[in-house]
Write a structure and sequence with these properties.
Largest sheet: none
Order of helices and strands: HHHHHHHHHHHHHHHHH
Low-confidence stretches: none
Structural class: mainly alpha
Distance between the termini: 18 Å
Strand content: under 5%
Number of helices: 17
Number of strands: 0
Oligomer: single chain
Length: 443
């Protein structure tokens, strides 16, 4: 069945904004402040990240407009490159998504562990808290996709409310002596700026899903770029506002050393009792991302099972609950493996961004292939074509290449493991394809 264009500019703007604003904004500013060392580099990195992400979003909007296929990344890579490459990218995406969920769960644990386990060793407390939370969400999602969606709705309201609260603190009276003397940058300022890109791009991630809506909007030539500009503009304003609030209330040094941003900010204004309540609320807000991940990623397994690169059991859906019980269980197990094997938020962040950068660079580079084919086959009617081609795409690719180089240079073990996992996807594709095409019954 053909997709009918039902979304307007406001719809697409809100979709994009909700896909970008996750939970990173409640944790990554600490990492970015530590790497930036001074406020000027800190805020410059946030602005640069927004501009580069905008360029990527506009590129992927054209990719999605030229090839609006259900299945997103998998179909684009299969169409523009090769099905084997599509599997290699999605194979690491599965790992990256599990790692991202694990990192977010650890972020939430940073808020509530001091309340639950004040005397316990931090790594052990974090593992107990995160694994318990993930298993609880797993149980909720096993009850049915409707129950999982209702849980997500409640957690999303909590998260949005918390973000609005943090920004509103700017307008409340707060101590003016929080700012300590900020030291000069030790080392190369450009290197400090460059190092900010890993957590910056993690926080701005999600806009790539605009590529799935090329056929969902009428007059994509006008609506697509307008929605992207509005969406990324709104994200930039919200992110700069909340970061200004962090620096204004906690001071830059306080931001660099904060284990729980939201709770500390509220404690400055309202006292420790309010901070404890906020710690619990923030833990629940952060779990919204984990729950959304448990809802959405099993559907990726479904698509891969349809392509016969995963067993048909991964596409099996419980007709009563509409839950993919096997796929959900496997994905939950991957998250728990990350939680057991890696104890550092920064380590997981590096793994996730190393994986994601490969996929996003390849996805944006697909625009060159699609345009070249269009010159031979003719341009489709009514598609969106970005301005300043190819410079915006090249700047985006360069930005994400810096992320990969950063991980390879400063954390070579993570880069080696990540690259080996990516390469393992090639023989694994042919092995699974050969096995499951023969064994899989019709879906």
């Amino acid at each position: 069945m053909a997709i009918k264009p039902r979304l307007n500019t406001f719809d697409l703007t809100m979709l994009m904004t909700s896909m970008v604003i996750g939970t990173g904004i409640f944790r990554t500013p600490v990492e970015i402040a530590q790497k930036a060392q001074v406020p000027s580099i800190f805020f410059a990195a946030w602005i640069a990240g927004a501009v580069i992400s905008l360029f990527g979003a506009l590129t992927l909007a054209e990719v999605g407009s030229r090839y609006p296929a259900a299945g997103g990344f998998y179909k684009i890579f299969s169409h523009c490159y090769h099905p084997a490459f599509a599997f290699m990218v999605n194979w690491i995406s599965i790992i990256a998504n599990a790692g991202s969920s694990a990192s977010v769960a650890m972020m939430g644990a940073g808020y509530i562990c001091p309340l639950l386990f004040p005397d316990m060793e931090p790594v052990q407390a974090t593992r107990i808290t995160t694994i318990s939370a993930v298993l609880a969400l797993y149980g909720i999602n096993l009850l049915g996709i409707k129950m999982g969606a209702r849980t997500l709705n409640v957690l999303m309201v909590i998260k949005i409310g918390m973000l609005v609260l943090l920004i509103s603190i700017i307008f409340l009276p707060h101590p003016q002596d929080r700012e300590a003397v900020v030291p000069a940058v030790s080392g190369n300022p450009l290197q400090a700026f460059w190092l900010c890109f890993v957590p910056i791009f993690f926080t701005y991630g999600g806009y790539h899903q605009t590529m799935n809506f090329g056929n969902d909007v009428p007059d994509a030539l006008r609506i697509m770029p307008h929605s992207i500009f509005l969406g990324m503009g709104l994200v930039l304003v919200l992110y700069l506002a909340v970061n200004y609030a962090y620096v204004s209330v906690l001071g830059f040094e306080g931001l660099q050393n904060s284990p729980a941003l939201a709770a500390e900010m509220v404690a400055v204004i309202f006292g420790e009792s309010a901070a404890r309540v906020v710690s619990v609320v923030m833990f629940l807000a952060v779990l919204a991302y984990v729950n959304a991940s448990l809802l959405s990623n099993p559907r990726v397994y479904y698509a891969m099972a349809e392509e016969h690169v995963l067993p048909a059991v991964f596409a099996k859906v419980n007709q009563r609950t509409q839950t993919q019980e096997v796929a959900l269980t496997v994905y939950t197990a991957l998250i728990i493996i990350f939680l057991f094997s890696i104890s550092s938020f920064q380590q997981i962040l590096s793994y996730v961004m190393f994986f994601d950068s490969i996929g996003l660079i390849a996805a944006c580079a697909a625009v060159f292939i699609l345009r070249r084919r269009a010159r031979v086959q003719g341009e489709p009617a009514g598609i969106y074509k970005m301005k300043l081609y190819p410079w915006m795409t090249l700047i985006f690719i360069a930005g994400y290449a810096l992320v990969n180089i950063s991980v390879m240079y400063f954390e070579p073990e993570i880069a080696v493991i990540g690259f080996l996992l990516f390469l393992i996807g090639l023989p694994l594709y042919y092995l699974l394809r050969k096995l499951f095409v023969r064994l899989s019954p019709p879906l």
